[in-house]
Write a structure and sequence with these properties.
45% of the residues lie in helices and 15% in strands. The chain is an alpha/beta fold. The protein has two domains: 3-91, no CATH class; 96-264, Vaccinia Virus protein VP39 (Rossmann fold, 3-Layer(aba) Sandwich).
Length: 274
């Protein structure tokens, strides 16, 4: 595909999604997002990110992706809640295998860096279908605390976990992480890719996390690279104030998110957005 044709396809999908009254899953919505993910998954086309037309639609496209992802998770949360066999219904979620592979990449990255013995974890921005938190608790025996500011997402996540019988392994906090004061007790804090819409918000988050986490604790932040930054915002390593980056992992297969692992440093200035 030429750069010109790729740009035209991106603009077409963006304009189609923008024109819809709703991003609730439907054949049309699903087809548009599937096409978008396929386009953005291809490596080697990052040079089009410098194109003014692409830069103009990127913030809007990320907002549309966030809205579409929320609606997809919301629908599947209700399907799991209402299912006769909730665990079987969860396995039918279209991206279940993708999330499972991402979580395994993250856990093995932590182990490979020597961060064993993790027991208490927090997941910031788990959404209405807290699949990553579920996998961490179910497959690795961690106690996972979900920190979610959206009331509907929080309520649905609690119901999903209750139906799955995992309410003893997952704990829920309905608040903005910027108002959460219990970060010091966690061995690792996961930051969902959609928490923090832009660089200023990401910096503010990192400053708060660094101020609250104990030295030696680990931050695992999901981000994106190359064209995948049309789906999720990119994190710059230099913005990780108060943390020492240990790993930056860019998967080249169908796992969309990149992963940053950083350790809370002992001492040093912690700054907010500038």
């Amino acid at each position: 595909m030429t750069c010109h044709s790729l740009i035209q396809r991106l603009r077409h999908v963006h304009d189609k999604l923008s024109s819809l009254d709703s991003l609730v899953p439907s054949p049309q919505v699903d087809a548009l997002f599937t096409d978008l993910v396929r386009m953005c998954s291809a490596y080697g086309e990052h040079r089009i990110l410098d194109c003014p037309d692409v830069q103009a639609i990127a913030p809007s496209l990320r907002r549309l992706c966030a809205q579409g992802e929320y609606q997809l998770e919301r629908e599947w949360a209700w399907r799991i809640i209402d299912a006769r066999d909730p665990a079987d219904e969860l396995r039918r979620f279209p991206y279940e295998a993708n999330y499972r592979r991402l979580v395994e990449l993250e856990v093995h990255s932590l182990l490979g860096l020597g961060y064993g013995g993790i027991r208490a974890a927090a997941f910031v921005g788990a959404g209405p279908l807290p699949l990553s938190a579920i996998l961490l608790a179910e497959r690795h025996g961690w106690v996972v605390n979900s920190i979610e500011r959206e009331a509907e997402a929080h309520g649905l996540a609690v119901k999903v976990v209750d139906r799955l019988g995992l309410d003893q392994a997952l704990r829920f906090h309905h608040c903005d992480v910027l108002d959460f004061g219990g970060l010091r007790r966690f061995d690792v804090v996961f930051l969902a890719a959609l928490v923090g819409r832009d660089r200023v918000e990401k910096r503010r988050l990192f400053a708060h996390l660094a101020a609250g986490m104990r030295p030696g604790a680990v931050l695992l932040a999901r981000t994106a690279d190359q064209l995948r930054t049309m789906l999720y915002p990119r994190i710059r390593l230099e913005d990780l104030s108060g943390f020492s980056p240990k790993l930056l992992l860019h998967p080249l297969h169908d796992v969309i998110n990149s992963v940053i692992v950083a350790e809370r440093t002992d001492g040093g200035a912690v700054t907010g957005d500038r």
